[in-house]
């Protein structure tokens, strides 16, 4: 500032001197010209003594004009006037030649008054001739005096400026020190260099805007990311060319933004914006921008990999939840939509659905379809498809390798299968396909088709690998389901072949039954209805422990054994004892073999109902007790001794007898009906009682009610249910006589029987009945013991029973030609349909059944054959 003041002072002095000299010259010229053109000057010059007039006039004018001298001279330079009168008449000091030529001339000379600045002006006449000269001027000391008088003012102004500058500098320095935190110039310079280097070198865009929306700063990275021109600084944001509209809206809003993602062209930018407060109020914003496009690509790839792993993980848990081929196919189709494909179809070889091994070149049946919409033009579920060799499905089924068809519209081999449907599929928007074969243990079971419609990009090789992995995992579950289906079908077939297909004809009970094998595997539950002699009927329910073919085969052996033992007409406890021995022998036969060869245990309930006495005799071996529903709706569990399960041995079985009123319902069942994971047996029994407490229902309706209430949706054990409503053989169909223990009673019994048959309208059976009764009564009287009793039962056949107190059973044999006896039972066997012996606590009963007249193979044919003999 001092140097500036000194320079300014020097410049002002020089300028003052220059201006003063110029002013002096101008004034000299003006005064000289004024005086030269004054009126009367020409006339005065023509007088004899011009000085007399001109001297006082020049002095007066000089003083009034403020010049130091006014000199009037002739053309030779002789003065007519001068401030010093002694200089009048002397020659003028200066150059007059230019003025003699009519020019105004100024110069600086050393004259009589000292250093002078003077102007010489010609005085011309009307003819233009120079008649005289006038000179006016100032001395240099007077000019310098003017400057000297101005110098104090100049110095004062300079001093004032220096003082103000000093004060301003101090204030500015203080503010700068406060704003720069005391940093010096070097530090400030270094900081600026670092700031500039960092600002333009970082890989993050930086923008600064003011409160009016102008762009104050944009570093190189910001210009690159946003595509800004080099001259973007200073422009209003709305006027910056190339700036994305959404980015411009964000910058103009001035709002705070944190990691806000915006698309700018093909870039994905993360923007952070914070308002600036330089003076305590918002006056703009600072914005940072970073490019996350590559990071987004990496994140997208990582997310894609995570989704694929999640898909495979979910597939492991969602596919194969049941050992059902169709259900497994549906689970496979459902798990891939919409996370991998928009539509998924599963086509299986027709044999696979039935559990068989697929054959090469066999047709495939569409087993499952899943999609984001239901109005698709793909083949529906159940359609049997014969894929052409040109289709990717047929090639995949034949080679076992997955095929990718990125553009279905350009795949003629695929279109050849069904051109109209293929065009409809393309028109629908489905444009890409992956056909992946279901291969397990070297066998191709079918093909899974993944279709894409919504996503514009076709399937790629990475997705082909994912489809192969997904299908490979599902194929194992599919093959397990297929193998289980085959084994289950074999077991069910075996079991159903061993179970009764239709209930036998009998009139003692109305019977309804239900059987359902377990979903997890066929078990050994069985039931049976066995007609017995004397219009009786046996009801059997059993359960072999375990599942599978072995359990079903064991069940068949036990059921056959029960039939055989029932034919002996043994009481229930003896039948269970014989079954127990049989199971023990079966277990012993399996010793040394596989552990699955044994029975491991079985339970059984055997009941015999007599419609004549309305008495039911039953015994059980570890089985659940039966229920009885009285005609009034009362339901009770029969208190029946449990007995050990079959196969344990060493413990006797006990029987129980109860009288059942006509119309009572006897309910036999297995534990699969009442026992479930969500409830115990006691709760199941109460539900069973509640379902049966409706006496107005027939057995079939009661069976349906029980199943509706108790049957689980997916039973884990076999379910067997048998409901029988009792009937009664009334007194009008029963005839009974006590036989005196003497031979003469035989004829009386024949007559009584013939009379009863006439009452029943069975006269045609009289001869055969009389022969049978004669033989049986005679044998009882001859070989048995008292008491002897005869009973006729009229049901769907005619039953003849002879009771006696002996336990000795007769035997059928062929008599020799010389034997006098031994032909009686042979006659009975020939005339009756069935005959046999059963034992009672008091003795035995020998019975014979005759078919009613009109029945096929009735007694008439047997009697005709018997009477057709050659005469002697």
TrEMBL record:
It is found in: Cell membrane. SUPFAM superfamilies: ATPase domain of HSP90 chaperone/DNA topoisomerase II/histidine kinase, GAF domain-like, PP2C-like, PYP-like sensor domain (PAS domain), Sensory domain-like. The chain crosses the membrane at residues 151-172. GO terms for molecular function: kinase activity. InterPro entries: Bact_Sigma-Reg (IPR052016), GAF (IPR003018), GAF-like_dom_sf (IPR029016), HATPase_C_sf (IPR036890), HATPase_dom (IPR003594), PAS (IPR000014), PAS-like_dom_sf (IPR035965), PAS_fold (IPR013767). Keywords: ATP-binding, Cell membrane, Hydrolase, Kinase, Membrane, Nucleotide-binding, Phosphoprotein, Transferase, Transmembrane, Transmembrane helix, Two-component regulatory system. Residues 191-231 form the PAS domain. It is a multi-pass membrane protein. CDD domains: HATPase_RsbW-like (cd16936), PAS (cd00130). This is Histidine kinase. The lineage of its organism: Bacteria, Bacillati, Actinomycetota, Actinomycetes, Kitasatosporales.
